[in-house]
């Protein structure tokens, strides 16, 4: 245990981060202190900067350093396709793939009857207004393949109406997946969505 | 303390970074909660989807502890549920109503069997609305608000039953209703196991069970409004039937 109250407080704060417990937080703090010039000071400066500038994009809900994120600000991304995701982490995952060239809309969660999360708690009304305002031609529902995720997808599809093309991500065998290790739900979904080779 | 049973997964909540607290409906132990170590991992996520049939081993030091579950998948219903809009809405309604109505650790063996049978029909959209209506009837009965549709509450006759008393839940015949008919709830033939179980009759059945779920069970027993998932399912089933 460290003898300094500030260092203890730093360890306690670090231990609250996802993936870190008290032991790993202590190790991380010790590492930062040992590499003060290389890691600790730049990290502290960056954290201060991000704390001052990070905000939610007013249009899509992505996290950036200005009111409108880079994706929403870019005219190249105005393809008429809008990808709806549950969380900012999902948006970043889609961006990492580099495949989707349109814009995003972050819901901020999924509908859940049990947790009393209704459409008003999510950014669904904003999504509906964006579809009209931005002349969207296709909405891609990239929501999790869970009961809550798909319930939300059906609800959004109902709200958007039949005139708009609304699609969802395919479900099936992941790249590198071995059938022997897949659960029977995934195998059923994959079989249902089979295609001609 | 430990036991082993089969059960239906009702709900999963994350507990800490790696564990989950699950709610299951079991045959011999009723609705029961417990911690699943590693339940938040990606490996087990497909198994812990609402509606899944699980083999459960529960263990705790004392009986009133929440305890831990070891879970093994028996069969997944996720693919059937996610493959159909009606099935998904139906699964949500069953799970929400079960969690809403049943107290923890109270055995409801007959209702468990009905629930398992109902969930095994997920994906068979043409059968589901009627099966669900029968399940709601069984749920009301298990919770002490069962409809007595055996004979007329006024005259005792077994024929011509056309209404249900909103106060007692007992059937009333056309003759017995007399001038009180407008104050009684219509009883569709499908609730008596008669007729062709048309979409209109099933919709009337939903109105009837909905009345008792809302006015009796929710208001008098649970003291909370009925889960929206039930209304969403009924609205969807009625809409699809009209289309």
TrEMBL record, chain A:
Stated name of the protein: Recombination protein RecR
Function: May play a role in DNA repair. It seems to be involved in an RecBC-independent recombinational process of DNA repair. It may act with RecF and RecO.
Keyword line: DNA damage, DNA recombination, DNA repair, Metal-binding, Zinc, Zinc-finger
SMART domains the record matches: TOPRIM
Zn finger residue spans: C4-type: 57-72
Family membership: Belongs to the RecR family.
Positions of the Toprim domain: 80-174
BP GO annotations: DNA recombination; DNA repair
Single Gene Ontology MF annotation: zinc ion binding
InterPro entries: DNA_Rcmb_RecR, Rcmb_RecR, Rcmb_RecR_Znf, TOPRIM_dom, TOPRIM_RecR
Gene: recR
From TrEMBL, chain B:
GO annotation, cellular component aspect: bacterial nucleoid
Pfam families: RecO_C, RecO_N
Alphabetized UniProt keyword annotations: DNA damage, DNA recombination, DNA repair
Domain DNA replication/recombination mediator RecO N-terminal, chain residue ranges per copy: 1-76
Gene3D superfamilies xref list: Nucleic acid-binding proteins (2.40.50.140), Recombination protein O, C-terminal domain (1.20.1440.120)
GO biological process: DNA recombination; double-strand break repair
Name this protein carries in UniProt: DNA repair protein RecO
């Amino acid at each position: 245990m460290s003898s300094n109250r500030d260092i203890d407080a730093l360890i306690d704060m670090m231990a609250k981060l996802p993936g870190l417990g008290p032991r790993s937080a202590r190790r991380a703090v010790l590492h930062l202190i040992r590499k003060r010039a290389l890691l600790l000071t730049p990290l502290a400066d960056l954290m201060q900067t991000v704390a001052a500038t990070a905000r939610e994009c007013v249009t899509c809900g992505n996290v950036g350093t200005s009111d409108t994120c880079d994706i929403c600000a870019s005219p190249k991304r105005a393809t008429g396709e809008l990808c709806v995701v549950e969380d900012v982490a999902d948006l970043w995952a889609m961006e990492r793939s580099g495949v989707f060239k349109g814009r995003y809309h972050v819901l901020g969660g999924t509908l859940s009857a049990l947790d009393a999360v209704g459409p008003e708690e999510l950014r669904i009304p904003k999504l509906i207004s964006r579809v009209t305002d931005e002349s969207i031609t296709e909405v891609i529902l990239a929501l999790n393949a869970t009961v809550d995720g798909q319930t939300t997808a059906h609800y959004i599809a109902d709200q958007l109406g039949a005139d708009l093309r609304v699609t969802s991500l395919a479900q099936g065998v992941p790249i590198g997946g071995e059938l022997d290790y897949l659960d029977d739900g995934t195998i059923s979904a994959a079989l249902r969505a089979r295609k001609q080779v | 303390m430990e036991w082993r049973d089969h059960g239906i997964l009702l709900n999963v909540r994350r507990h800490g970074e790696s564990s989950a607290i699950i709610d299951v409906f079991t045959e011999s132990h009723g609705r029961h909660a417990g911690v699943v170590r590693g339940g938040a991992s990606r490996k087990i996520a497909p198994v812990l989807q609402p509606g899944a049939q699980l083999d459960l081993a529960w263990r705790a030091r004392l009986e009133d502890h929440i305890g831990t579950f070891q879970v093994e998948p028996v069969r997944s219903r996720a693919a059937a549920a996610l493959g159909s809009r009606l099935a998904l809405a139906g699964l949500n309604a069953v799970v929400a109503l079960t969690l809403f109505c049943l107290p923890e650790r109270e055995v409801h063996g007959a209702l468990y069997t009905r629930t398992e049978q109902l969930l095994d029909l997920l994906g068979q959209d043409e059968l589901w609305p009627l099966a669900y209506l029968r399940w709601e009837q069984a749920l009301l009965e298990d919770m002490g608000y069962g409809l007595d549709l055996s004979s007329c509450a006024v005259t005792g006759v077994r024929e011509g039953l056309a209404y249900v008393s909103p106060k007692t839940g007992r059937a009333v015949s056309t003759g017995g209703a007399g001038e009180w008919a407008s104050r009684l709830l219509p009883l569709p033939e499908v609730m008596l196991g008669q007729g062709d179980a048309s979409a209109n009759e099933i919709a009337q059945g939903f109105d009837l069970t909905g009345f008792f779920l809302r006015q009796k069970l929710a208001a008098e027993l649970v003291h909370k409004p009925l889960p929206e998932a039930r209304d969403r399912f009924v609205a969807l089933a009625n809409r699809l039937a009209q289309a």
